[in-house]
Design a protein that fits this description.
The complex is a heterodimer of chains A (84) and B (177). Chain A is mainly α. Chain A is built from 3 helices and no strands. In chain B, the strands form 2 sheets. A 5-stranded mixed beta sheet of chain B has the order 1-2-5-4-3. Chain B has a two-stranded antiparallel ribbon with strand order 6-7. The chains are: A mainly alpha (84), B alpha+beta (177). At the A-B interface, loops of A face strand 5, helix 4, helix 5 and helix 7 of B.
Chain lengths: 84, 177
C-alpha cells in the first residue's frame, strides 16, 4: 500500500507526462465542411423469445439439480399449505 | 469474412483513399477504448466506387443516410464498417494533415488530432442522449491525454467553429488543470 504522501506517479499521470503537449496550431481554425451525420442507427443486440428458450434449455442442462427438483418442491409447498 | 486487410487491399486496388476516424482514431491519439465498428471518412465523389467495393467484399448496406453509409458483414464476428462522406475539398484537406497509423496490422491514414477534435465537436452539436456522453468522454480524454491547452485561443476558436460556446465552457471547466 502506498503511503499517503507517496510521489509515485499513477499510470494516467505517467502517460500524461510522457506525452508532449499538443498545440492546436492552425489559426484561423481549418475550413472543413461536415454534413449532418445524425440518424445513424445500429440495432442493439436483442434476444428473441426463441433465443431465450434456447438459453434456458442450455442452462438447465448445466444444472446439477435433479430434473424433477422444482416439481417436487412445488408438491412439497402445496402439501405444506394444504396441511396448514 | 472481409477483414480490414481485405478492405485496405481492395481500396488500394481501386485507387480509393480513406481516413480512419471514430474509435480507432481516438485510440491512435492516446485514448484506447472499445469500439464496435470501424468508422472511415471518404470523399462523396467516391460513393459509388465504395458501394461497389463493399459489394465485392460481401458487405451489405444496413443503412444509407445519404451523408453516411453503414455496412454490415454477413459474419456477425467481423467488423461493421461506417463510411462518413465529406466533399472532395474537405477530404483533401484532411488527407493532407493525416497521420500514419496501424489498424489490424495495416498501415492506414488517421485523422489528425485537430481534425478529429473538429469532428467530435461537430458530432456533439447534433448528438442526443447516450451519444453525448460517449463523444464528451472522447473529447475530454483526447484533450487530457494529449495535454491540449484548452485556454489557448486556437483551441477556443476550433471549438466555437465546429461546436458551440456552451461546449467550450463545459470543456474549459472539465479539462482545466
Amino acid at each position: 500500500m502506498e503511503p499517503p504522501n507517496s510521489t509515485k506517479s499513477s499510470p494516467a499521470s505517467a502517460l500524461n507526462e510522457a506525452v508532449t503537449p499538443y498545440r492546436v496550431a492552425q489559426s484561423p481554425a481549418p475550413e472543413l465542411e461536415f454534413p449532418d451525420w445524425s440518424g445513424q442507427v445500429r440495432p442493439a443486440p436483442t434476444a428473441t423469445m426463441e433465443d431465450m428458450h434456447r438459453l434456458s434449455l442450455s442452462l438447465m442442462k448445466q444444472r446439477t439439480l435433479p430434473p424433477d427438483f422444482y416439481e417436487r418442491r412445488l408438491k412439497a409447498k402445496v402439501a405444506v399449505e394444504f396441511h396448514l | 469474412m472481409p477483414t480490414f486487410a481485405n478492405i485496405t487491399h481492395e481500396a488500394d486496388r481501386s485507387g480509393l483513399q480513406f481516413l480512419v476516424i471514430g474509435g480507432h482514431a481516438v485510440a491512435h491519439h492516446n485514448y484506447p477504448r472499445t469500439t464496435e465498428d470501424t468508422d472511415i471518412l471518404v470523399s462523396s465523389d467516391d460513393r459509388e466506387a465504395w458501394l461497389e467495393l463493399a459489394d465485392r467484399l460481401g458487405l451489405k448496406v444496413f443503412h444509407d443516410g445519404g451523408t453516411f453509409l453503414q455496412l454490415t458483414p454477413d459474419d456477425s464476428a467481423a467488423w461493421r464498417l461506417d463510411l462518413m462522406l465529406v466533399n472532395a475539398v474537405t477530404f483533401a484537406k484532411m488527407i493532407a494533415a493525416a497521420e500514419s497509423g496501424k489498424l489490424e496490422g495495416q498501415t492506414v491514414l488517421v485523422a489528425s488530432l485537430e481534425h478529429l477534435l473538429a469532428l467530435k465537436f461537430h458530432a456533439l452539436k447534433h448528438a442526443r442522449g447516450i451519444r453525448v456522453l460517449k463523444d464528451m468522454d472522447d473529447v475530454v480524454n483526447l484533450v487530457t491525454n494529449n495535454r491540449v491547452d484548452v485556454k489557448a485561443p486556437a483551441f477556443r476558436e476550433l471549438v466555437l467553429k465546429y461546436g458551440t460556446a456552451e461546449l467550450y465552457e463545459k470543456l474549459s471547466g472539465l479539462c482545466s488543470e
